[in-house]
Amino acid sequence: MKIAMIGFGQAGGKILDRFLRYDSTRGTGIVGHAVAVNSAKADLMGLDYVPHENRVLIGQSIVKGHGAGTEPELGEKCTQEDIEEIQSAIDKMVSSEIDAFLIIAGLGGGTGSGGSPVLAERLQRLYVEPVYGLGILPARDEGGIYNRNAARSFQDFAETVDNLLAFDNDAFKSGGESLGEGYTEINDEIITRFGALFSAGEVEALGDNVAESVVDASEIINTLGEHGITSVGYASEVVENANDGGGLLDKLRGGNDQNGFASAGDATNRITALVRKATLGKLTLQCEVDSTERALLLVSGPPEALNRKGIDKARKWIENKTECMEVRAGDYPLPDEDRVAAIVVLSGVTEIPRVKEMQRMAIEAEERSEELKSQSEEGLEELIQYGDDEE
Ligand SMILES: Nc1nc2c(ncn2[C@@H]2O[C@H](COP(=O)(O)OP(=O)(O)OP(=O)(O)O)[C@@H](O)[C@H]2O)c(=O)[nH]1
Fold this sequence. Notes:
- The chain has 2 domains: 3-200, Rossmann fold (3-Layer(aba) Sandwich); 217-347, CATH 3.30.1330.20.
- It contains 14 helices and 10 strands.
- The radius of gyration is 23 Å and the shape is globular.
- Helix 4 (72-81) packs across helix 6, helix 7 (144-160) crosses helix 14 (353-390) and helix 12 (258-280) runs parallel beside helix 13.
- The chain has 391 residues and is of the alpha/beta class.
- The protein has a 10-stranded mixed β-sheet with strand order 3-2-1-4-5-6-7-10-8-9, with helices on both faces.
- Guanosine-5'-triphosphate binds at residues 9-11, 14, 39-40, 67-70, 106, 108-113, 136, 138, 142, 146, 169, 183, 186-187.
């Protein structure tokens, strides 16, 4: 699947950079076009892979290149002010080759959080291709302001894109590390999931390794639909004796000899176990699996470890678990890989406790800030009063 990606704000830019690195090391070519947008000059300069001519500094007359300081209203203003400039950077390269747009942003800050919905709305008006968001939720311990920003932006972003692919930093943070190191690891997790998903739709990259049932871009687009929130599950396992030649391939795919059937059974069991783990384990956004509207299963790995029976069985299991009938499934052979990976896309999910919690945190942060404001106004009044009395 070829995607025009826009990295909005610092987190968005860094993740876009990582998608470009993924493409250059794997030769996948999922990023059809890359534009980084930010109101902070230093963040744009810190990128490694996004071409310099595709980095757009917005809102210079408002924030003078220093960023939106965690104020989404400022991010929104900066975006509105320079929307034409963003648009022309996107237009420069967007061609009929593009299957979709993806706007990537951390929702807890100011620039990406406030600006992404403005850009999404614009792209929806101007292009026929679907516009998706990849929205990163802040960790709980980032505090009230970040969670308040994210709660608002999550709603606006979800309303302006065709589908909001959500990733919760909180679910993936590991204790102890510095913030920078932590983000590097979290960004790896993001790319592992979404990089693998989008490259599966890039069917041409398969060359001679024709998959038994291919997932192409239109299957991904149909799964994501035209409205909703998506959460993604992932699990993988190293396969012993992978890449040991074609003989094993026939056996695992259900050849006629008895050994062949035994090995095919192993492959089937591995696939079904991985799919359960992916669905019931850590999702990019924790949600009730049975609130899914549409799902997609993708199994990638060395060709000899993929088989149709395993994928069919796993697809039926997802149908039962999600209670939805629209479950697509396919495989993606990767001859140089020694890992089998299952990606489960849960689209149109509605029961998301984390979002409700974020909204609650937002209300609490709002009330607390009102309280502090009135306390400081009262304090100031008392001070002035005291000054007058002294005189
Ligand atoms: N996964 C991930 N999340 C990040 C990263 N950097 C920041 N974040 C998250 O994104 C949120 C927003 O931060 P930024 O992207 O720095 O904010 P911004 O959009 O540049 O906005 P301003 O800094 O206010 O101008 C933070 O609260 C974090 O939750 C990153 O590299 N990876």
